[in-house]
Design brief:
Elements lengths: L2 E10 L2 E11 L4 E5 L6 H9 L6 E5 L5 E4 L3 H4 L6 H6 L9 H14 L16 H13 L5 E5 L7 H18 L2 E6 L2 H7 L2 E6 L2 E7 H6 L4 H12 L3
Parallel strand pairs: 3-7, 3-8, 5-6, 6-7
Antiparallel strand pairs: 1-2, 1-4, 8-9
């Protein structure tokens, strides 16, 4: 066990966004949290990160070892900052020389499939996939053990989605990471996850291995999610 959530609850006014959610994350796994928009997935992620304060519940594990990559890489990167300044944020808790910071930034850019000449560019000069790679690099520079990926590929084109997922597979092995992958794209989830938690109206209503959830879903809502995902054709 690397992380445990016990009884997380969060309300906004009369709306219970997260309702008594509990689960455990195991080291090295890909845990995917699925559910339709408004089911509470992103609120749960922010509670785990400490970006929101839970009304009730607790998290067991080192919150400092968790980093998050958001859905929209453009809005999560300051448009007025160069890539160098964006990545430098990761060193705010580390006492490193400028030379060492530059070395680590260059190495991390290479690890996410980019070159060091990106450092002087601005987010608007990059493609969506490049911006997401920068966001991933910034997260990795803090030496996390757990990455929360909140719809981290949903705003990207299908080909770029695959490239980013392939990258996530590579860096997981390289940096010995654990993933909490939040998504409504069940086609991606089916190929990426080890276990799946299904959220509906703020609750986890079903949890199991990827095989169990996709082949033997117990809840009607889960069955409907899967059917809708794979019956839909553009």
């Amino acid at each position: 066990m690397i992380l445990s959530v016990s009884g997380f609850s969060k309300s906004f006014g009369t709306v219970r966004a997260v309702d008594q959610v509990s689960f455990t994350v195991y080291q090295g796994e890909n845990l995917c949290i699925i559910g339709e928009s408004g089911s509470g997935k992103s609120t749960l992620a922010k509670l785990m990160m400490g970006l929101l304060k839970a009304d009730k519940g607790k998290l067991e594990g080192d919150r400092r070892s968790i980093q998050m990559v958001f859905q929209d890489p453009y809005s999560s990167l300051d448009p007025l900052w160069t890539v160098r300044s964006i990545l430098k944020e990761a060193f705010c808790r580390q006492k490193l020389s400028v030379k060492e910071q530059h070395k680590q930034m260059g190495q991390m850019l290479l690890a996410v499939g980019l070159s060091a000449d990106m450092l002087n560019r601005f987010p608007h000069e990059l493609s969506g996939g490049e911006r997401q790679r920068i966001a991933i690099a910034r997260a990795l520079l803090t030496n996390p053990k757990i990455l929360i990926l909140d719809e981290a590929v949903s705003s990207l084109d299908v080909l770029v989605q695959k490239q980013i997922v392939d990258l996530l597979v590579d860096i997981k092995r390289q940096f010995q990471l654990t993933y909490i992958f939040i998504s409504h794209n069940l086609r991606v989830v089916r190929n990426f996850s080890d276990r799946i938690a299904v959220m509906h109206q703020g609750k986890i209503i079903e949890m199991g291995s990827t095989h169990e959830i996709f082949n033997q879903p117990q809840q009607k809502y889960t069955q409907q999610l899967i059917q809708a995902a794979f019956d839909y054709h553009v």
